[in-house]
Write a structure and sequence with these properties.
The protein is built from eight helices and 30 strands. It has about 575 residues and is mostly beta strands. The relative contact order is 0.13. The strands form six sheets. The chain has a six-stranded mixed β-sheet with strand order 10-9-12-17-14-15, with no helix packed on it. A six-stranded mixed β-sheet has the order 21-20-23-28-25-26, with no helix packed on it. The protein is globular and about 75 Å long. It has three domains: about 140 residues, Cupredoxins -  blue copper proteins (Immunoglobulin-like, Sandwich), CATH 2.60.40; about 180 residues, Cupredoxins -  blue copper proteins (Immunoglobulin-like, Sandwich); about 190 residues, Cupredoxins -  blue copper proteins (Immunoglobulin-like). Bound molecules: CU-O-CU linkage.
Amino acid sequence: MSFAHLLSILLLASSTLAKTVTYDFSVTWTKGNPDGQYERKVIGINGQWPIPQIDVDLGDRLVINFHNGLPDQDSSLHFHGLFQNGTTFMDGPAMVSQCPVPPGMNITYDFIVDQPGTYWYHSHVKGQYPDGIRGAFIVHDPQGPYKNSYDAEIILTLSDWYHEQMPVLAKRFISYLNPTGAEPVPQSALMNDSQNITLAVKPGKTYMVRMVNMAAFAAQYVWFEEHTMKVIEIDGIYTEPMDADMLYLTAAQRVSVLITTKNDTSKNYAFMGSMDQDLFDKVPDGLNPNVTGWLSYNSNAPLPAALPVPEFKPLDDMLLIPYSRIPLLPPADLTVTLNVTMSNLGDGANYAFFNGLTYVRPQVPTLFTALSVGDAATNPLVYGRDTVPHILPHMQIIDIVVNNQDPGKHPFHLHGHVFQTIFRSSDDAGNFEGHLESEYPKVPMIRDTILAPPGGHVVLRFRADNPGVWLFHCHLEWHLLSGLVTTFIEAPMELQRNTTIPENHRALCVKRGILMEGNAVGRKGKDVLDLRGENRSPDPLPEGFTARGIVALAGSTVTAILGMGAVVWYGGAQVPGEI
Ligand code: C2O
């Protein structure tokens, strides 16, 4: 057989391996009662909730025909952790890389999945996903390094649950009546969108347990009684195996572990999730932060009550080493420093800020601006002040420094990339003031969502090798609403050469009357730097009117007077966030 012949057979073989996986998703209201305490309206898919898990094999093409069957809300889908290299317009956040999908309209998400591992998908419109539109997305890897190390896979989603709907909670959260910005506390913790689940296991086997925290807000501690977890993947990155008795997953993080079962089937064992109550400003009376499940060896044996743990001591994810052993990237060409603060604006509500700016969606989706303003695309001004834009030049090494000046914990997520987590300070260590390259690990951990310590900082490094428009934001859904979001416009000139927005994406903008060209307000040509009329956050508090004053006023009868004032000051203000 000639070499060319052999090659053509091989090519044929590989092209027949990658297949197209198609899902038809119609998003609709349905009912759910996952904690058994309260039945409520939830957002389901094809009349079903929990929504389906997406399963593909590495290299597959995924096509999702998405119909927004909600009569009263826009929607969209984001595929959390996928790079969308070459398909930034498939990334999902409304007014960033697409127009929102209005009721009754369709969009097709169509891309090649070329990363293995554990992901999830969720709506990226307003604060929508905690109402139910969040699910696991698994990319199976027949050639993965651990493929011979386990007998079966188990998917374990973690989440939190509210009895009220997000639009109601959001309105209460961003309000002068909530001047301290206290986030709504969930009523329950869930596993696999339920509670008290049993996972049937066989003795003497090894299971790969893929965990995804799909919460709106709560991080969870997770442990399996009398079973050790061996971590092998985080956020789609295979790791060197590392044993752990307890894990901590922030909202949006994923961890896969190997668990080997006992040889004896006489007993069943509890596993536990416990919400991190440090996140809650005030723990409501009677809150049960825990959710329990059981490894069921024997369906006739009892399900023992879970034992309390003396303290939470989870594995430090900074200790993990990627299986690829990719070394520390070279020193940064560009450092983006982001100072996180929270305070009140003139409408009396509490907002979150990067470098004093709180995100407000533009009038033209940022990607559409980047594609339509020519050379001006490298000027951050064209995207609008309150999209908090940063331009990342093609192929440069970028350091993101997050100085968390807030006393709360924040899980930060970058779209379009994973990053090396090269430094995380202790709590209250203050701002980054420079570190020596020699202080950084030689082989840093890599992931896509990282916990920033209260009062401390993290340093993240990646190469800008994926032209696109990518958000970097806190993945506490409340903080998306309060504006803790920045927009990275990566390699806009390269993007202009290689991007065509599909017709069905453009049709959504037409339907909504959203402009598809020009700067953040739709001006082009010689007017491209004219941003008059851009969407802006509320102005600062009036002189002499302190946030403390608002806190003192709230809850007293004077609140009503301030409320009237707020209406007068900001009758026509934009609603911030909305992505
Ligand atoms: Cu789960 Cu903006 O992402």
